Amino acid sequence: MNYLIWILVAYLLGNFSTSYFVGKIAANIDIRNYGSGNAGSTNVLRTLGLKAGAWAFLGDSLKGVIAVFLGKYYGGVTLMLLCGIAVIIGHNWPFVLRFKGGKGIATSIGVGLFVQPLSALICIIIGVIILFRFKYVSLASITAISLLPFVFIIHGTQYFLFGLALAIMAVYRHRGNIQRLLNGTERKISAGSKTKGGL
Fold first, then answer.
1. Considering the entire predicted model, what is its pTM?
2. Cα angle vertex 90, ends 87, 93, to 5°?
3. Would you say residue 195 has pLDDT above 50?
């Protein structure tokens, strides 16, 4: 019962869409009606600029950290990992926004860095290298998160399964991006426009 309560708390925490509120505060817009239509930090970056994007990324990452911290504090490793999955589900499919959320990358980064800092950092560094080389945020994000199960496996089966769950969610949420990458129509990070407004 205790596990279920904290998993629900983590899911509800994920429902707090930083990107949505940044859009409202910075430019009085629903970020889901602009750019890619995604309530995530990359769309905020492209639509509202670097500062707004940074705030969105920070907030979405932080809620991931808080969720896994609570899980570890109140239940140990297993609950920590379950809360990590739950907060990402809450971010991706928030009931308060009619299940139209983000893609979970910033939240996954916050979760991963708390759960296994060094292993997560390796994946992030590889993702950053790909981003600078190819300029595709989606490709960098998919690659970094998809590496998690292979890096986390050294920590045990439950960490591998945890990383696999994060990878599956990331790939599923990026299925449109994957198709555009294959078609050669995916937008590069430098190709965005900026809507008037700022933080």
1. 0.93
2. 150
3. yes
